[in-house]
Write a structure and sequence with these properties.
The protein is an alpha/beta fold and 392 residues long. It has 13 helices and eight strands. Helix 5 packs antiparallel against helix 6.
Amino acid sequence: MMNMTFNFNNPTNLIFGSGKLGELSKQKLPGKKALLLISNGKSTQANGSFDRVMAQLQEAGIEVAVFDKIMENPLKSVVMEGASFAKENGCDFIVALGGGAVLDSSIAVSAMATNPGDLWDYVNGGTGKGQPLVNPGLPIVTIATSSGTGSEINFWGVISNPDTNEKIGFGFPELVPVLAIVDPELMKTVPAKYTAYQGFDALFHNTEVMISKGVNILSETIALSAIESIAKYLPRAVKDGNDLEAREQVAYGSTIAGITMQLTSTTAQHSMEHAMSAYHHNLPHGAGLIMISKAFAEFFIEKHACDEQFIKMARVMGIPSADKPEDFITALMQLQKDCGVDNLKMSDYGFTPEESMTLAVNARKTMGGLFLANPCEMTDAECAGIFDKSYR
């Protein structure tokens, strides 16, 4: 039976399309002085977006203070530093320009720029204290330069705390961005490898929603639409970064995932990857998801937990005549091969087989909520078994 109930509340003004960055200065912006949050890399210089955003903000009469220290798998310490920087510079809103790490960080910086104490006071799960926010955060404007997390349009960010080996989702509905601009032209300079990793992150947001217990008529409809776009166009975007049609379709699949994840939670596949990169900080999130994806899906297929959902996905992933859940695995493996990510090895990132149970326990301890969304029960031993099966 299809679940016909849902709660859709998305107050973000989403402006999607090639060339749309040029409309930033015409928008009603939520303040007078922006904290421009960017990564510690060169990507915003390479794709020209930094200069263009600065020009747009200048045209809108906005003062800017730049904070350029966000790294992949962003750290709590950097978030706290960014929040202090925002306070010291009197910033009254945030412009987050970048990929998933920057967009994720903006949620946490927003909260900590206006609230007392430490980020972990407000984190739910693990060693977080789970307190409510005292004050509203700074309003956020997001400008996505890659397609992966979908954070441009939802209120979740994932932050790492290396002191406790935790990588946890942090978010409150009141921190949802007020404005999001998704301009696929800004994504043309993302290297092939990262295009693939990020594209698979977006894919799995949607596939996890599809098998989640909470899937409903709206989240399923848009998730299938996104899966179809990503499966068809990601290999093209990986092969030729300047293929704008491919970039547009993958960006669509990624942003739509940001919406479908607000309607329906993802599953333990994400908790498991967060445990992986909590212990191996150099592992790109998308790469970790790819490594465990086959064994993760096979676990539910063997249990016949949601056969119909796997068949629906296989049909939009290039097997229109799919009639068994295993067809999803066939389509997934083909897509990984077409994107050149079928040979990723956990051992290349320093994993050992002895870690499986540690990772399984960490996944449940830090982000146990996502296990509740799985279509059937998964014990710690079964979770460790998926890591074992994925290991090479």
